[in-house]
Amino acid sequence: xxxxxxxxxxxxxxxxxxxxxxxxxxxxxxxxxxxxxxxxxxxxxxxxxxxxxxxxxxxxxxxxxxxxxxxxxxxxxxxxxxxxxxxxxxxxxxxxxxxxxxxxxxxxxxxxxxxxxxxxxxxxxxxxxxxxxxxxxxxxxxxxxxxxxxxxxxxxxxxxxxxxxxxxxxxxxxxxxxxxxxxxxxxxxxxxxxxxxxxxxxxxxxxxxxxxxxxxxxxxxxxxxxxxxxxxxxxxxxxxxxxxxxxxxxxxxxxxxxxxxxxxxxxxxxxxxxxxxxxxxxxxxxxxxxxxxxxxxxxxxxxxxxxxxxxxxxxxxxxxxxxxxxxxxxxxxxxxxxxxxxxxxxxxxxxxxxxxxxxxxxxxxxxxxxxxxxxxxxxxxxxxxxxxxxxxxxxxxxxxxxxxxxxxxxxxxxxx
Length: 416
Hints:
This protein is an alpha+beta fold. The protein has helices at residues 60-72, 93-110, 135-146, 153-159, 212-224, 260-282, 301-312, 315-322, 329-336, 371-377, 405-412; strands at residues 7-9, 19-24, 37-52, 75-82, 120-124, 168-176, 179-188, 201-206, 241-246, 290-298, 348-353, 356-362, 365-366, 382-388, 394-401.
């Protein structure tokens, strides 16, 4: 997709025409300086695509969102989301998630929006197994809707943060049929992140007009090479969700076929999701380094993905990167147990960063390199592991982070 054109802009989920957002503290988070309740609303109804966690244990918000989209025919108009409580593994979870949708729709209608309960996407993130109180939503929904604005993206992005240390949002413009369109999104996630999708809470908006089936097809294909290639700690969460809302307000001729406009949309969606994926990886719990593994020369895309993910998911390799130790044997080990067919004796590996590049393996065997130079290269905060299987033309990337002492500290007292 490198030949596609887009421009990066500010605005996150509010960058596209017709979207407003807000976030505030409703009392779920005892720190009143941190938002814990967010909302995104479109002026008009949106075609909506979604992907969810593959975990057998699914949060009640996923159950309700799936039901709502089924009832509405894949249409949505608003998102209501909270942090600090996942509303998962609770007997009254579905009841509470449904009530959140009802409260959001009712207040939006009271303030002049035309929204049905089933047109509301609901999501929650936080501690599993704690009963979600409904009172904070009842007492703060009016203020949340009152504060909706076209520049409320930052408040909404902050509202979905848990152990995240930074907000995560990205937006781009692209051209479809001579009309400028926008795709923007926000994400949360720092720990409990592992394929397969989704891997966190992620909300994307676009003003492009696109066929609902093509929207879902594009999302599923892009997720495979972005979010499904992300791992922080090997734990797939229970509440993972990614939704894309398309309201068509850009005014482009509706994308109804897999033509040049569709490819332009996919390229823009990839740019947003890929950059959010990297932000999630870089902000992994306790992380000090972003790791990006590129696998080239693969016989097919699936092999490239499997190999890249195998390296990124290796705890031993992640620890080596924390220690800035060029222990390339751990890369070969991870490649070797990847569930794919290829000749390990043709594999090359380089380790690189903004500080330089060192070759550590050629044709499956080690080559001499300077340990001092390696220490300099691995001292950067973004490390690139370049693997070439030399057995084809396919390539893929995967993203993760190093494994540090702080990861254990954070997860040792997560509920406190």
